[in-house]
Amino acid sequence: MKQKSFLGRFRDSQVFWPLMAWIIILLFDAIVEPSFFKIGIMPDPVYGNHLYGNIIDIFNNGAPLMLVAIGMTLVIATGGVDLSVGAVIAISAAMGAVLINPVLGNTLISNAVSAANKTNTPLPLIVLADLAAGTICGLWNGYLVSRGRIQPMVATLILMVAGRGIAQLITNGQIMTIYYTPYYWFGNGFILGLPVSIYIVTLVLILGWVLVRKTSIGLFIESVGINARSAYYSGINEKNVKLLAYAFCGFCGAIAGLLLSSYVHSADGNNNGLYYELDAILSVVLGGTLMTGGRFSMLASAIGAVVIWTFTVTVYSLGVPANALLAAKAVLVLVVILLYSDYTRRLINRLFERRGSKHDTAS
Amino acid sequence: MIQQAKLIFWRFGAQLIAFAVFLLIYFIGGRLYPDMQKAQVFFNFFINDASLLLVSIGMTLVILTGGIDLSVGGVIALISTASAALLRSGVSPYIVLPLMIVMGIALGTLMGWIIQVLKVQPFIATLMGLYLARGLAYIISLTSVTIKDKFYMKLALTPIYIPFIPKAYVYPTTLVGPIMLLVAIYLLFFTRFGRTVYAIGSNEQSALLMGLPVRRTKILVYAFSGLCSALGGIVFSISLLAGYGQFATGMELDSIASVVIGGTALTGGVGNVIGTLFGVLIHSTIVSILQFNGTLSSWWTRIGVGVLTLVAIGVQSVVYIRRKRS
User: Fold this and answer.
1) Phi/psi at A40 (nearest 5 deg)?
2) Rounded to two decimals, what is the model's pTM?
3) Do residue A281 and residue B128 have CB atoms under 8 angstroms apart?
4) Among A282, A310, A280, which Cα is nearest to B120's?
5) Is domain B15-325 in CATH 1.10.3470, yes or no?
6) A169 to chain B: which residues are within 8 Å by CB?
7) Which CATH number is associated with domain A47-319?
8) In chain B, what are the helix, strand and coil shares in percent, each to the nearest 5?
9) I want to staple A253 with a disulfide (CB 3.0 to 4.6 A). Which of A88, A128, B33, B91 is the partner?
10) A322, A303, A315, A285: which is closest to A28 by C-alpha?
């Protein structure tokens, strides 16, 4: 057996298709609007000099979606789905905003106090509380799915409906503005000229990769997704594997909520992370992970999220109003559906195989 | 005799429980706020949640086949905006109304075709429908469009008095929901189409092997849901006399929750539309208790519906476990 060439292995990997989609969109941009790729250096009095441009923006603004997509990949790989990530984002954002509010624990409430650039809670504690809130939401979902034996779509629907109510309960129904500037750093800060959010996504991706590929957990997740019962009979604790996947998804949702509330300096229980669950599922599907579970790739899902955001920025730069973006997205979904349907797949594979067949006969 | 009663209980157990929960909440509301005992409050449930009832009926049929329809809220927004824009430009309402219904059915059929022929998950295909419908609504108009048509005004403002009950009335549009409910009951219980829907929901593979028209039925079910959403959109635009792309955000969630509370299993094959009626009524009772209270905030609706969904699912799983054992 001859080892497949690098190109062949690359084509078989899950990253190939979303990467192709990304390149096609970028090519379109290159033809229609060459200034799309312009990257400049912006002097910034607060965070120092940093890079700016559409590509940087895509990665910076797309970071929350990439995070959610990474978490969602594990859940979908176990054969489930998590509809509650949007609500988890809202809960985590609300948690942060409430804890930061300097009114907390202050007897004298005045506008000067509540709008002051200070907080009574240390920042690490705020971040920890954010992450804990999201992880607890994920554990709740995981518990319902694994122990309660409820279908994933129904179990997470409960939190999807109730979660935004809980977020509003936390903030008492108000849109809370955050005045504490160190909190802004997560969404607006820069390290070595690149946005902090890019580093956070990379960190989570590496963490997930180590967790999944350097231990046997990834294998467990895939086997549970392919056939939960046979996984159980071969001695895998299928319940805990599912619990872990949902908890990780909640954790990723919490980081996304932290970033989103940091971008806009506020927390809004109704609109934080609206439709994120749908976009995240779309990213995962774009990344080539099947909704029925099994083989998965977190990197491919993250690239899927980048594709969605590149598409969004492209549509904006063409001058389409923000609200009509939804129709453009529908067209994107339709193209994805057509591309991933069996018929088109067969057609494209046949095109590739005609060229690849020579290699096989020669070896 | 007892055997028969038991059989009926296990068959309609979830629906009976939904009915009992509705009565319980309604009586609690009546005890807390004596004004809620008025007959008109009960009819207001149907007036206020007319479009939710309509989309939930379509949703029930889709869920019975084991699918899901996320596009209902978007279709309502699209239908309301499109009809408002057409009426503004002077098209007769007698042309607009059938056109809107055809549009809803066409959208539903398109989604059903994508699901069935391209073998796409219902979740993804109807998600595309949601994006498409809402996006089109915004393309038609970015702002709210008011309706000033005389026929629409007349429909919106003529009360129909209920016989035998003094001072109780509904609007003509309110009657559309109950009529569609009767149609759905007829379709589900008395036609071959209804039997096929249940068969597909229980086991699609066996239904196919039995020679049932699986493909046609599944597409028809989505078309029916599109019809219900279109009617819901028309009712919505008549009651508010406006059309806007942001109408009915999140209605797909309320609708799915109502269907589940009404005892329909999301796996398909179990449940019926009568339970859905009680699911919708429970939703409107919670909303009206919050309105009577006045101090409770609107987010308690969401939390309440979430908790009830959890309870309904718990009851369902208990009932199914029992049934499997017996």
Assistant:
1) -125, 175
2) 0.84
3) no
4) A282
5) yes
6) 299, 303
7) 1.10.3470
8) 75, 0, 20
9) A88
10) A315
Selecting from B124, B307, B313 the residue whose C-beta is nearest the C-beta of A285 gives B124
Q: How far apart are CA A306 and CA A308, in angstroms?
A: 5
Report which of A276, A327, A308 is spatially closest to residue A160, judged by C-alpha positions.
A276
Which residues does chain B have within 8 Å of residue A173's beta carbon, measured at their own beta carbons? 297-299
Per-residue tokens: B202 = 């229980």
Q: Tens of pLDDT along chain A (363 residues)?
A: 456 677 777 777 788 888 988 998 899 888 888 888 888 887 777 777 778 888 888 999 999 999 999 999 999 999 888 989 999 999 999 998 888 877 665 555 666 666 777 777 788 999 999 999 999 999 999 999 998 888 888 788 888 878 888 998 888 878 888 888 888 888 888 888 888 999 999 999 999 999 998 999 999 999 999 988 898 898 899 999 999 999 999 999 999 999 999 988 888 888 888 888 888 988 998 888 888 888 899 999 999 999 999 998 888 888 887 777 888 888 888 887 777 777 777 777 777 776 655 454 444
CB atoms within 10 A of CB A326: 21
- A32 burial (CB, 10 Å; 0-12 / 13-18 / 19+) is exposed
- 3-state secondary structure at position B32: helix
**What residues does each domain of chain B span?**
15-325
Are B7 and B266 in contact by the 8 Å Cβ rule? The answer is no
Q: What is the residue extent of each domain of chain A? A: 47-319
- Interchain proximity A326–B302, CB inside 8 Å: no
H or E element in which residue A177 lies: strand A176-177
Indicate if ipTM > 0.90: no
